[in-house]
Amino acid sequence: MKEYTKAMEAAQIAQDADEEHKHTAEIEQQMVKISNALYAERSNETDEQTLQRAMRDPEVANIMNDPVMQQILQQAQSNPGALQDHMKNPIVRSKIQKLIAAGIIKTR
């Protein structure tokens, strides 16, 4: 169906639910496939096009307009290690994962 963002969100929910880590390898394998498909689909986009597309998603727009998230993202630019600390907060982690899925934060 090529709804990669929704697929990534579902995989992240599965990862969170897999508390006993019985399906970690399978979930991670699916996340890699989804990431590769997203990357291939968006490989020809400019950063500006990516931002425009992502901002059409109301959830992404809300995250990007949140002053706390703006501060976290600015801090992450100057200190990428700080992002790891923020990822310990499940609310911040889900927002960052949403931005990654939208292509705002690049992991490659």
Automatic annotation (TrEMBL):
Protein name: STI1 domain-containing protein
Major location category of this protein: cytoplasm
Annotated stretches, region: Disordered: 1-23
Subcellular location: Cytoplasm
Organism expressing this protein natively: Sistotremastrum niveocremeum HHB9708
UniProt entry keywords in alphabetical sequence: Cytoplasm, Repeat, TPR repeat
Keyword RNA-binding: no
GO cellular component, one term: cytoplasm
